[in-house]
Design brief:
Layout: E1 10-15, H1 22-34, E2 39-44, E3 61-63, H2 73-87, E4 91-95, H3 100-105, E5 112-116, H4 130-139, E6 144-147, H5 150-158, E7 167-169, H6 176-180, E8 195-199, H7 208-219, E9 225-229, H8 235-244, E10 251-255, E11 269-272, H9 281-288, E12 293-296, H10 301-304, E13 313-314, H11 318-329, H12 332-349, H13 352-363, H14 367-371
Helix pairs in contact: 7-11, 9-12
């Protein structure tokens, strides 16, 4: 008789939340790409599984619901370890600080563990909480830690004091060809009013307030429009600010788009005004779409954009953001040159094919081949 088909590796992924965000979208891209090569358990600590809508219908995945007891860490650790013993996954994959209790429950390496760290919330934009630093030092020291930014790699080595042999840098990647195929619309003809645009969740750490204030200053000098694509808890406050500044005719709050790709075809200048980022997907998307970027100098942003674009990466305040916007608004020829350079760099450095290859290796228990590269 022929041998029974080999069962695919079982991966248990734990997210603080599985709402739509960069880490979640990256996971769906990787999981959909490999299809039946892996089976997945999926745990969202807050019970939000919105991003499951992006998973392929023929994917092997199961939503895992483990009871959580607020403020009872020992009780939670017992439940998590009991679940690991029951499921015996091939690999435990945790994401960010909100899933760290699963790394603690896996102490003494009950199963192979990879921790993916994408960055910090607004409360740690300038410095990290010492308790969290020490927890990572202790409970991630025997794990493989994957980071998408060089800034985070430096933090993992210098602050968390993890061994270089345990830290793996895998830049985020996208389908650059998809964005490169976007066609410019009539509104983007240089003789027309240029549009500044942002694609972002409307959360406090994204500080879209800063962008609106910078836009208000820039518009007094150069005629322009602002397009804000995305939704979130800050929307009502942003609407109030837009009215207070008399910008209702100049700013469009487009809300959530199922396919935000089309937004980049409506934009002449991409803007990002965050307090904290690491390697934002939207910067890569804008670059792949051939757009110049005006952004706050957070995370890896200055290392992501092309050298031509560097003068428009500024400190996080509305005045300098406004100055950068005015300068690039007045120079449409530079916008074209910078956009072309950004597109070239996105294709060379941030195409998703390399990202998918590297995640496939770590999911198949081959991280050593990457760490030696």
């Amino acid at each position: 008789m022929p041998p029974a088909p080999k069962e695919p590796p079982k991966l248990l992924h734990v997210f603080p939340s599985f709402n739509v965000g960069g880490a979640q979208v990256r996971f769906t891209t990787v999981a959909n790409h490999f299809g039946a090569a892996f089976s997945h358990y999926l745990m969202a600590m807050d019970g939000d599984y919105e991003c499951c809508e992006r998973l392929s219908s023929n994917l092997r995945f199961e939503i895992l619901r483990v009871p959580l007891h607020k403020g009872q860490i020992l009780h939670n650790l017992y439940g998590f370890r009991k679940t690991l013993n029951r499921l015996r996954p091939t690999l435990l994959v945790t994401h960010n600080w909100g899933s760290i209790e699963w790394a603690m429950a896996n102490w003494f390496q009950l199963t192979r563990h990879i921790h993916i760290e994408d960055g910090f919330g607004r409360e740690e934009a300038t410095s990290q909480f010492l308790r969290r630093v020490w927890t990572r030092r202790v409970f991630l020291r025997h794990s493989i830690v994957v980071v998408p930014s060089l800034t985070l790699k430096r933090i993992a080595l210098d602050k968390w004091r993890l061994a270089p042999s345990r830290v793996l840098y895998i830049p985020n990647g996208i389908d650059c060809e998809r964005y490169g195929e976007l066609r410019r619309t009539p509104s983007q003809v240089p003789s027309q009013t240029p549009t500044i645009g942002i694609v972002s969740a409307l959360r406090p750490e994204k500080n879209v307030t800063r962008l609106i204030r910078a836009f208000a200053q820039a518009k007094r000098i150069v005629d322009c429009r602002l397009l804000i694509v995305g939704d979130g808890p800050e929307r009502a406050a942003l609407e109030d600010l837009i009215r207070a500044l008399g910008l209702t005719d100049a700013v469009t709050l487009a809300g959530h788009l199922d396919d935000p790709t089309i937004a980049y075809a409506q934009i002449d200048i991409f803007a990002l005004s965050s307090d904290t980022e690491q390697m934002p997907y939207t910067i890569i998307e804008a670059m792949a779409a051939g757009l110049p970027v005006v952004a706050t100098n957070v995370g890896d942003v200055s290392e992501m954009v092309s050298p031509r674009n560097l003068p428009y990466i500024v400190p996080p305040n509305s005045e300098q953001l406004a100055q950068a916007l005015v300068h690039i608004l007045r120079d449409p020829e530079s916008r074209v040159r910078i956009g072309a350079a950004n597109r070239e760099k996105a294709r060379a450095n941030f195409d998703q094919r390399r990202m998918l290859e590297r995640y496939g290796k770590i999911f198949r228990a081959e991280p050593d081949t990457l760490l030696r590269a």
